[in-house]
Structure formats: structure tokens, C-alpha cells
Amino acid sequence: MELNTLTCHNLIDLLYKKTISPIDICNSIIDRIEKTEKRLNALAHFDKEKALERCKSLKKGPGQGSLWGIPIFIKDNICVKNEMTTCSSNILQGFNPPYNATVIEKLISLDAVLMGKTNMDEFAFGSSTETSCYGPTRNPWDLDRIPGGSSGGSAAAVAADEAIFALGSDTGGSIRQPASLCGVVGLKPTYGRVSRYGLIAFASSLDQIGPITKDVEDAAILLKAIAGHDEMDSTSADVPVSDYVSGIKKGIKGLKIGIPKEYFIEGMDQEVKDSIKSAIKKLESLGAVCEDMSLAHTEYAVSVYYLVATAEASSNLARFDGVQYGMRAEGIKSIIDMYKKTRREGFGDEAKRRIILGTFALSSGYYDAYYLKALKVRTLIKRDFDEAFKKFDVIVTPTSPTPAFKIGEKISDPLTMYLSDIFTISANLAGIPGISIPCGFTKNHLPIGLQILGKPFDEETVLRVAYNYEQNTEWHKQKPNFTNGAMHHL
Amino acid sequence: MSYEIVIGLEVHLQLNTKSKVFCGCSTDFGAGPNTQTCPVCLGFPGSLPVLNRRALELGAKVAIALSCQIAKSIRFDRKNYFYPDLPKDYQISQFDQPLAQHGKLSIINGEAGKDIRIRRVHLEEDTGKLFHQKDSSLIDFNRCGIPLLEIVSEPDINSPEEAYLYLTALKSILEYIDVSDCNMEEGSLRCDANISLRKKGGRELGTKTEIKNMNSFKGVRLALEYEARRQADLLVSGQRIVQETLLYNAEKGITEPMRSKEEAHDYRYFPEPDLVPFNLEKGLLDAIEKDMPELPEPKKNRFIKDYQLSAYDAAMMVSDKGMADYFERCAALYNNPKTIANWLMGDVSAYMKNNNLRIMDLNLKAEHLSGMIKMIDSGVITGKVAKELLIEVIQTGKGPEELVREKGLEQISDHGLLDLAINQAIAENPKSAEDFKNGKENAIMFLVGKVMQKTKGRANPGIVNDKLRAKLKGAK
Question: Of B357, B376, B407, which one is at a domain's C-terminal end?
Fold first, then answer.
């Protein structure tokens, strides 16, 4: 059996029965990476000796932490103590944080094995993982295509069985969209559900860390592991964490599902549309009550997002100035010269574009017209959801308007690229949880994702709907085959 | 044409919390460079601020002491600018919803009182400190993240002297409520001033300049005096005032334009997304109000009423909380508050000033000072002896009674001994004796002085005076 192809909950069973050891899993992951990583480029930093060492230094188990011996990959914007953490940016080359993110502390305390860091769009700015300083990650379902982004490395690694599961971060869809495009499960928790301490901020009011996994049960397990209030993060909520794994196995009979008409737009891919319609029928057949509804301010979400997110980013990224850590440009003459050269050489084009956009939006004379107005419309978008959730338990939509596009196809056209997140952004603006799960394939065998949005802190219902759907379909069992040059198989 | 001076002051105050405003690092002054830092105050990527409630409470305490209205919900904003002493390249501060607004501070200029309105009080984080070397600069981030309270006055201050009095009164209140060390040299209190001139009786404000880099209250007064003159000279000669930031050069006693290009900064303020809004619960504010010590103004009024001090003496006694407490301790031990106040303002203050000591650092027990005054009043020692005795008490820590006994400093009222000294004095100074006899009233003082000299100040001056008069008049 190839252990790397299994899920976390499969492995926990095997480890408990002592038929396998953590080293076996680790070796199987390493073998897979050696075979596939050259083609995928899903990882930003991976040192197999270090991974093995961590595995060997585990306390004797099983019966230790709930993730004892389970390997996990981490998106490169989450700080791991003394491990290079770069956000796939040149400006953070050489940055070894002197501390762990809170989620990392939690994983370590549960005896998970940190394997390495996954590739991403630079500072999570992108929907394709093409803006990474390490080069683009490829989609395991079609190596000529992007895996989505910005957590494209995590999604591709999980889809290609280089990872059992991984952590991503989601600011406007960066977990759900790549999960959708790679045919895996990606969950963005409620804002405040998971501590952001140690997540290198893109947009502080939107960022959340979440799981990217092979099935819904693993998403429940990983969410349970990382969720909870953290004194180090004032924006983390003091709301009890449910036992998601037992919660998801209940049925969905009588559950009310809203289908927002604004999410079925002109120009969206017909195959995506059809798959979502079938998925809705499936949910109905499982006893859910689906009803068309409206989220009236949806059309403004992308505009609002690109003001709020860039404004916050322009401020969050100011600290990369060459003074304390990361890269400092050579041959500098003055402090201003150091700032300019370091940032000119250190940031890629998309990072610069967003810093400039955000700086402009916050500038005196423009603040009211852009940033302040965006905040007001954000409130309206949130109210849409508040209203909707008075009536519906969850809302179901497509995750992405299209399946994975070709590498290079949209990179020179930022506006088209920004529209890739059109269906995922609202959840971040409203702070609500959302999951993407596999719900079909195009005729070219590209995965399609179903998005399920829920009430704040009601990840349990989101996961339950996802689990019920998944257990009654076969999509999540499909594996890409790209190792022999073949692009797809079923 | 005559001009009126218009001044507004911005005071930055380090609050004396144990830990910094957004992390747990110590705020102690004087530790080795960068030893009191952590990922949060160093602004490392991924780190997040968590508000120190104590800083908010101390800020609220100041706001209440300055009669401000406190905001119901406290929000922080980011002030964005690039500078190496600011590790995140933005400062967490407060912009359009400050902690408190609309307060006032009373000052007394001569006999007249005046209220200076406080525009706003807000909480922010301090920056690091730069040390420039020949070819490089070093940064110490220990100071970075220390809670800083900015107290901004309305432009109600109309002279450099009033500015000085405002600062003194503010410092006095701040010390009373024990929220800061208020030490300008250590930088725990800093002050910037805005100053402009307007035509007397006019309403329109003139162009203002901002003065920075003043490191004492006297420096503030001197800088403002200089700047007011400079502006007046410009206006009188028909020139324009340029709105700019000036640095005070204490050595030369002048203000100079800041050398760096002072572009109009756009700080791009926006709400700090890493901190949720905080509510100051009514209960907490009530508790702060309840725990508020008696402030200088009410204390002064009480001193006038309870101790029959003059307004001036009372103001002097309450200007420093340590002094006021000390005064009350002495007055409780011996009921002669007026004389106690005189000694505190006179010899005790002089000694403190000469030795750069505060009353609490002074080795002078309240029992000793009040005991000594009692000895004067009851005629055991003379006032002249007491002056030297005071220093002796401070330096040895011994009680005045013990020292008087040891050194034999009791006042001499023994007529035989006094007669001896008086006869000697007259014999040695026949001219003065003659002068007095001829009606020169002043000459008697000279002779009394001589007798005091001979008795090392221990002679009872009243008796000496009487005896001398009797002797010289009788001899006439």
C-alpha cells in the first residue's frame, strides 16, 4: 500500500493498530516527492533529512497527540521556528523566524510531523501560484495548467499525494479556489476561528489559516487541531470548538440550502455550471431543501476586496524594508536608497502592483472615496449574508467560475486574474466559513469544486453538508496521473 | 502693531506600565540595547499586537484627571510612514476616535487663574531610538512599544510663561496620579509646541511653526520666547512666517529649521485591523475615579482652609505631591503649619535644590523637622542655630533634640552669660554704641549681631536686644 495516498484518518487507524510506523509514512512521502516534485514544483522548502529527524524524535506512540506521526506541509507564509519562511518572495530570503505560529505550536503539541513549506503566490498575491519567486506550481491534473492560488503549492501537493494534508491561508479564496482546481478539499474557517499569530499578514481583516485535505473528514480533523482562541491574537474569537468529526456524520435531511442567483453569471464555464446544478440535485436527493435566493451586493465584492485587501497589504508589507531581516539591497547610499532598492529588487510585479494600489486607496483625498466606501459596502455584503442565514443553514455556489486555466494565460492581465476569485471573496469580506469540495470533472478531466458557505462559527454544518455530499459521490477518490507524461486518467 | 502669542502644546508621556503596550516586554529604562524586545515589538512578520489593559487604564486615569470625556469604544489606527526606528513602518496610534477629548487644565499665572482646554488624549506606541555613527546608524528597540500618551492642548496658551506653567501643572497632576516618571531627560515626558502670532484683539490665527527638541520645561519657555520674538520681528518688518518644523538649539538658544526635507506627510491612517475595538466599562471608569487621589487644585483649597496658608504658600506646598504629603505629616505632628511651610519653601527646598534631591529622597524625617520647629517656638534654640542644625540633622540622620544636647546648642537666656557678652560687644564697638545713643536705631542690630557671634548664635536675640537697649539708654 502506498501510504502517501491515504488520508489522515486512514493513517491514524493504521498507526493505532501498529501495522505501520510514522517513519513508514514519512518515507513513503519522501519517495513520492522524489518522483513527482520536479514536475510539480509544489514545495518551497523541503529537507528530507530534517523531516526524518523530526519523525525519529517523536515520543513513542501511538497514544500520544491526536496527530501523532502524521506528516503535514505548511504554506510558506506561516512561521515555523528556525525554518526559512519566505512567502515565496525574494525579499524574505534568509528569514528564519525565531518563533512558531500558534497553529504550528498546536500541531507540534499534537505530535504531527512538520515536513516542509509549500509554494504560493508571492505574499499570497494571486490566484495561480505563478507569482512565486520559486516559479509556478503545476496542476497535477494537467501540468500545463495552474493549480490555483495562492495556496497552489499546498493544493497541488495534496492532490498529487506528496502530502497527506497541508495548511493554506485564505484571504479571498486562496484555500478554496486551488482546492477546487486541484480536486481536493479546502476549508476557510470563520474569521477569528483560527489564530493568525505567525501567519505573515496579507490583509489582516480577511486572512484565515485553514486545512487543505483529501477528504472532508480530514478537514474536520485538521480544523479541530488548529482552531481555538489564542491570547496572542486579539482578533481570534473565544468561541468553543466543536468536535467536528463526530458532528459531520449526521444527515442533512430538512437542511435549508440557499442558491444565490448572483453566482451563476454570464460567461461562466458551462461545464462548471452543469456540475454545480447536479450537485444541488444530489443534495436535494439527500433530503436538503434547496431554494433560489439572492445576495444582492455580490457584484461589488471584487471591487471592495481589491480596495480593502490592498490597503491593508500596503501597510502590512511596509516592514519589508531591509532594516532587520530578509534581504537588503547591495550598494546602498542612504536610508531612502536602502528602502527603494531593497523593495524594488525584493518584491515581484504583483506585490508592487498591490502595494501601489493600496497606498493610493489610503491616500489623503482618496481615502473617503475608496477605502471608506469599500468598508461601507463590505458591511452591506455582510448584511446580505446575515439576512440569508436567518433563513438558510448554508449557501451553495460554484467555487470558481472556470476550471484550471493555462500557465501564462492570465498572468499579464491582472483584472481577468482578479475575477478568478469572484465567488470566494464574499466569504472573506463577511468573515464566514466556506469549503470547497470536488463535485465533478470537465471533459478534459479538470476538477470542479462546489463551495458551501455557512454561518459564522458554524463550520460544523458546512462540514456536515460537505461530508454527506462527498460520501454519496466518488469525485474525491479520483487521482491524477501525471508521472508518465500522461495528462489524465480516470 | 502689537501681537498676541498663541501656543498649543503636544505632550508625549510614557506611561509607567511594567510591560509594553502591545507585548509583554519590560519597560525598564537603561537596560542593554535590544535586550527588552520580542517578535511583537520588533514588528517581525506574523507577530500581532495585544493591548495591555493597564496602559488603557492609566490613559483613562489621565483623561479623568484632566476632566476629559472618555470615548465609549476605543479604536486604534495605523499611522504609516517609513523610518528605521519604527520596525513595522507604521505606528499603532489613534486618529479620529481618540481615547478622550474636551478636557481642561487650570494654571495660575500670578494671582489669576486660567483654564487651558485639552483637545485630545490618545494612546500610541513609542518608537525605537537611533544612534548615528560616522558611517552607519544603530537602533535600540527597547523603547519601541512603550505606551505613550499624547496630550494635546487647544491653542489657549498666550505666553511662554503660561506654557511653562501649563507643563508644570500637568506634570504635577501626572505625578499625583502616578502614571509616569515625567522625566524629560530620560525622555519619559516630551513636548512639542505650536506657536503663532495674531494681531491683538484679532480672531484670525497667524501662520504657525512647530518647535521640537526641547528637553526641559525651561527649554520650552526659552524656545517659545525666542520664536515669538523671531516671528514678531518678521511680521514687523513686513515678512511672512513660513509654516515649518523647527528644532530648538539649546546651546545657541535659537530655533532652526529641521534640516531634513519636511515634506507634507500623508500618514494614510486607517483602522488597525489587528486590534478589535475595546470598551472601557463604566465599572472600570467608576473604579478609577473612586481611586483617584486628591488632585493639586482641590488640595490647595483644602490647605488654605484647614491650615490657613496663604494662596501662594498653599500652591507651593501642593505643586509636588511628595512635598504636600510631607507638609501634612509635619503639620499633624506639630501645629504650626505656616512656619512648617516656610521652612519647607526656604531652607529645606534650598538644600534639596543644592543637592539635587526630591523630598522623598531627603534624609529628613517629618518628626525631626517638626520637632526642630517646636524647639524654636519654645525658645530652646534660636532660628539662627536651627538653620545649621537642619543641615546637621539631614546629614547625620540624628534627631534635633539629640544634636542640640550633644553640641550644647540650646539658646542662652542666662542673664549673667548674656551680660558678659553684651559688655564685651559694647567695649569692642564703642562707635556703634555711640551711634545708637545718638539716635541711630540701626546700630543696635550691629551690636546684636556681635553678641550672636560671640555666643555662636545661641543667644536669645529678644533678650539681647532688650538688654542692649536698657544698657545703652541707661548710660545716656
Answer: B407
Segment among A96-100, A320-324, B209-213 with least mean pLDDT: B209-213
Residues B76, B117: one domain? yes
pLDDT value at residue B262: 52
Q: Do A85 and B89 touch (CB under 8 A)?
A: no
Task: Tell whether B423 and B439 lie within a shared domain.
Answer: yes
C-alpha distances in Å from residue B253, one per residue of A18, A300, B213, B247? 83, 59, 12, 11
Q: Is the pLDDT of residue A489 over 50?
A: no
Structure-block grid coordinates of residue B81: 510612514
Total domains, chain B:
3
Q: Does A234 touch chain B (CB under 8 A)?
A: yes
> CB–CB of A79 and B78 under 8 A?
no
A235 chain-B contacts, CB cut-off 8 A: 48, 273-276
Out of A312, A323, A339, the one facing B273 most closely (by C-beta) is A312
Here the cell at position A464 is 456536515
Answer whether B42 sits within 8 Å of A97, measured CB to CB.
no
**Is A273 among the residues known to form the active site?**
no
In a domain, A181, yes or no: yes
Same domain? B265 vs B140: yes
Same domain, B274 and B299: no
Question: Residue A220's domain is classified under what CATH number?
Answer: 3.90.1300.10
Question: Domain range for residue A455?
Answer: 3-254+433-477
The predicted pLDDT at position A485 comes to 55
Note the pLDDT tens digit of each residue in B387-405: 888 888 888 888 888 877 7
Residue from the list A97, A234, A325 with its beta carbon closest to the beta carbon of B275: A234
Question: Domain containing B151: what range?
Answer: 3-287
Nearest residue of chain B to residue A231 (CA atoms): B50
| Same domain assignment for residues B33 and B126 | yes
Tens digits of per-residue pLDDT, A174-188?
999 999 999 999 999
Q: Is A75 a catalytic residue?
A: yes
| Contacts for A141 with CB less than 8 Å, ≥ 6 apart | A159, A182, A183, A404, A445, A446, A447, A480, A482, A487, A488
Dump pLDDT digits (tens) for A441-468: 999 999 999 999 999 999 999 999 999 9
Compare all CA atoms of chain B with the CA of A323 and give the residue at the minimum distance.
B84
Residues of chain B with Cβ-Cβ distance to A191 below 8 Å are none
Report residue B104's pLDDT band, with 50, 70 and 90 as the boundaries: very high
Residue where a domain stops, chosen among B259, B287, B315: B287
Q: Say whether both B44 and B148 belong to one domain.
A: yes
Nearest chain A residue to B136 by CA distance is A334
Say yes or no: B326 and B249 in one domain: no
Q: How many domains does chain A have?
A: 1
Look at residue A416 and tell me if it is in a domain.
Answer: no
Q: Which of A174, A275, A426, A436 is catalytic?
A: A174
Q: Give B288-309 pLDDT, tens digit per residue.
A: 989 899 999 899 999 999 999 9
The pTM (predicted TM-score) of the whole model is: 0.89
Taking CB atoms within 8 Å and a gap of at least 24, the contacts of B53-56 are: B54/B17, B54/B18, B54/B19, B55/B15, B55/B17, B55/B21, B55/B123, B55/B147, B56/B99, B56/B123, B56/B278, B56/B280
Arithmetic mean of pLDDT over chain A: 95
The yes-or-no answer on residue A174 being catalytic is yes
In angstroms, the CA A239 to CA A220 distance is 17
Q: Indicate if B177 and B312 belong to the same structural domain.
A: no
Q: How far apart are CA B100 and CA B102, in angstroms?
A: 7
| pLDDT exceeds cutoff 60 at B261 | no
Answer whether residue A17 is part of any domain: yes
Contacts of B149 (CB under 8 A, 6+ apart): B12, B13, B15, B58, B59, B62, B121, B122, B123, B124, B179, B180
